[in-house]
Amino acid sequence: MQIYDSVYFIGNIFMAFVIYKYVHIFYSECKVNSIYEIIAYGGYFISISAIHLLFKIPLIVFFSNILLIFLCTCLYVGGIKKAVLSTLNICLSLTCIETLIAFLSSFLDLNPLMPFDYHSSFGIIVIRIVSYMFVLALNGFKNVRKESRLPTAYWISLVVIPSSTISLLFSVFTAKQTTKSLIIICIICAVLINILTFYLYDKISILIIKQMNERVALEQNTHYEKQLQMMRNSLNYMKTLRHDLNNKLSPLLSLANNGDLESVKAHISELMQYTSSEEKYVDCGNNDIDSILNYKLQKANKDEIRISTNIVVPSDLTIPSFDLAVILGNILDNALEAVDSVTERWIDIKIRYTKGRLIIEVSNTYDGVVNIVDGDFISRKCDKENHGLGFQSVKSVIQKYEGLLQITHDDKMFKTKLLIYI
């Protein structure tokens, strides 16, 4: 018994490492530093070992394992849906492997509701080794690690599959007169179903990422089309202005020679009004920022939204214009949408460049209602299919430049602040 206990504890240390590797298939970014991460998995080892030795009831150990692994997934950047799905996948696959090897090593009378005594040191070692090999085999699925927001219908489908498999295995184990061969077949099927679920999750992640990239590409193309149209309009405006100026300037000389100063003043005043008739909110010297903001804020003039800007940037920023369009376009779209729901309407835009960092800060009034799904802010537009894609597009560009995003809000003001290194 002492030898078995020693092997079990050593095996559990290795199993904590296996689960660490398994969790890292799903996640790439940890919220805490590596020391706290190691402490957390050490806590998992101590807790699951104590629960096993105290109760030795498979069902209690299984659900304790689910809870502890779920807590481990909370250490990483990701939503609650991803945490639930990854926890179920990890627990089901490792439990099936452990149960299968226990049966193959001649332990035949397992009841998940009753205490059991399994004393095969060899079986414990084999379970840990096979579990590690299984995790290594799954490392080929790289897309589940990428952060993508699963639609609710997909998430429910992926959760139902392992949950139903767990219920099926429980029924098999608790049924009377169940043969060893039937149990082994059921366990093998459960492992295969779990691998299939993992495969589907990987493929769905690819589709969602592709959809988001297409959304970003559409935003970029739309910006280019609008920028091109603005350039055409500007050229046409300059041609018209040059023609009209020739007509309006020609009588000024004769009026000045005749000493008709009042008429000269009237003509000059008319020319000043004529040349300033086009509304421009921004003229910072950077063509990309000027065109994006002036286009997006055209709606503000019609809706009587107060706009304030403070922009200090060089004319030759090294960031591509379509990345700027994704960031500024989506943030301003959200701000314009938000101020529509309140009577006090204002948007404040601050952009500055300093020491290789571009800092963008947009503040606006809103009605105090925010929609947050899996840590993402979701708009309240009627287009439910593309909910959250704009925010995901902004996050994607920020990650590209290893930047930071900070969102703060109170009952009246919503502020989006970001920093990117260029």
Which key terms come to mind for this protein?
422 residues; alpha+beta; five-stranded mixed β-sheet; two-stranded antiparallel ribbon; 12 helices; elongated
Describe what this molecule looks like in 3D:
This protein has 422 residues and is of the alpha+beta class. The protein folds into 2 domains: 2-216, no CATH class; 282-422, Heat Shock Protein 90 (2-Layer Sandwich), CATH 3.30.565. The chain is 64% helix and 11% strand. Helix 2 packs antiparallel against helix 3 (58-73) and helix 6 packs antiparallel against helix 7 (180-257). The longest helix has 78 residues, at 180-257. The two termini are 62 Å apart.
Quick gist of this model?
The chain is α+β, with helices and mostly antiparallel strands and 422 residues long. The protein is 64% helix and 11% strand. Helix 2 (34-55) packs antiparallel against helix 3, helix 7 (180-257) crosses helix 12 and helix 9 (287-296) runs parallel beside helix 11.
Outline: elongated
Please state the CA-atom Rg, rounded to the nearest Å: 32 Å
Question: What percent of residues are in strands?
Answer: 5-15%
Low-confidence spans: none
Into which percent range does the helicity of residues fall? 55-70%
* Strand order, largest beta sheet: 1-2-3-7-6
The termini sit apart by 62 Å
Report the order of strands and helices: HHHHHHHHHHEHEEEEHEE
